[in-house]
Amino acid sequence: MSKFFLSAFLIFTFLLSGCSDISVQEENPEPEQVAAPKKPEKKIPKSDKFYIANKDFSNLQLQEFNKPVYDAYGIWERQAENLPMSLPDLQPFEKFSIVYLTFDDGPDDKNTPAILDILRNEQVPATFYVLGYMAEKNPGVLKRIFEEGHAIGNHSYNHDYNDLYAAPWNFVVQMYKTDDVIMKIIGVRPLIIRAPGGSAGMFTENYWPMIKAMGYVEHGWNVSTEDATGECPDASTQINHVLNQLGKNPPKTVIILMHSNSGKEETVKALPELIHLLKDWGYKFGVVTPMTPLPW
Question: Does the active-site annotation cover 104?
Fold first, then answer.
């Protein structure tokens, strides 16, 4: 008998003897039950300086006018989790005479921090409508706006009229993109937006249904320092613009348009005196939220 057959015979005999400790695996074992990975719990920033909207937006009828409101869920997250997109009808907050200082087109690394220093010294809040590409360049300044209790609004990604106003969808895509930029930096997104150039002059009737469906609230302004015009007014001229527009019977709700980007040094100079005048007139200072009355 050849060595091969002898070896095979001995192994076969050994297995039949039942004396082997060798276990034979089944050809088709039952698959192990593997637990599905747990979805990581969403980290939601918490602070007494701002409100976070509930998943169903049920907590937005607020009685405070000086705290920002943010959403912890992005548009795509709301769609994926089948959460409400559009906001409920809210009663505007009109209890006091309130002025809303708003600054567009930042944040930059010079004038925005200078404005924040003034606001901190004067102990008044403001609203910053930021551009996505500027937030990407200056994330630390955006964080400071957020951490110091000011409101952040979405002012599009690049302020390019040709792109933004080619169609309503183009506008919304830029808002989505800027939301994502803001969320990556501060963990939440704004519900308030401002159309570059102003919705009155830029929107057709087709824009409004899409904006409402996406849960955005657009606010323009009823007073301007004219600091973005070709006139390039100095600080005293900017203050006079505001006084002339307020007139002898100032409105109860005042939303002032200013800018915080490069070249707005005169706006920085005008701000302290403007704040003092508004305080003397008895205005309280608020931040724009979904409850802020429209300024017209």
Answer: yes
Contact status, residue 284 vs residue 57, Cβ threshold 8 Å: no
- According to DSSP, residue 98 is labeled E
Q: At what angle do helices 111-122 and 265-280 cross, to 10 degrees?
A: 20
Other Cβ atoms within 10 Å of 120 Cβ, number: 13
What is the three-class DSSP state of 210?
Answer: helix
Say if residues 82 and 73 touch (Cβ distance below 8 Å): no
One digit per residue, pLDDT tens: the chain, 296 residues? 444 333 333 333 433 344 444 344 445 555 555 555 566 777 888 889 999 999 999 999 998 999 999 999 999 999 999 999 999 999 999 999 999 999 999 999 999 999 999 999 999 999 999 999 999 999 999 999 999 999 999 999 999 999 999 999 999 999 999 999 999 999 999 999 999 999 999 999 999 999 999 999 999 999 999 999 988 999 999 999 999 999 999 999 999 999 999 999 999 999 999 999 999 999 999 999 999 999 87
pTM, entire model: 0.86
259 given a catalytic annotation: yes
- Tracing tokens 């990604």 back to the chain, one arrives at 157
| Helix (H) or strand (E) run with residue 70 in it | strand 69-71
CB-CB contact of 216 with 154 (8 Å): yes
Q: Which of 159, 219, 241, 259 is catalytic?
A: 259
Exposure of 202 by Cβ count < 10 A (0-12 exposed, 13-18 middle, 19+ buried)?
A: middle
Regarding beta strands 69-71 and 189-190, do their DSSP bridges make them parallel or antiparallel, or are they unpaired? antiparallel
Catalytic-role residue among 71, 104, 105, 179 = 104
Q: Which residue has the tokens 């724009």?
A: 288
Cα distance between residue 166 and residue 272, in whole Å: 39
Reduced to 3 states (helix: H, G, I; strand: E, B; else coil), residue 130 is: strand
Q: Which domains, from first to last, does the chain contain?
A: 68-285 (3.20.20.370)
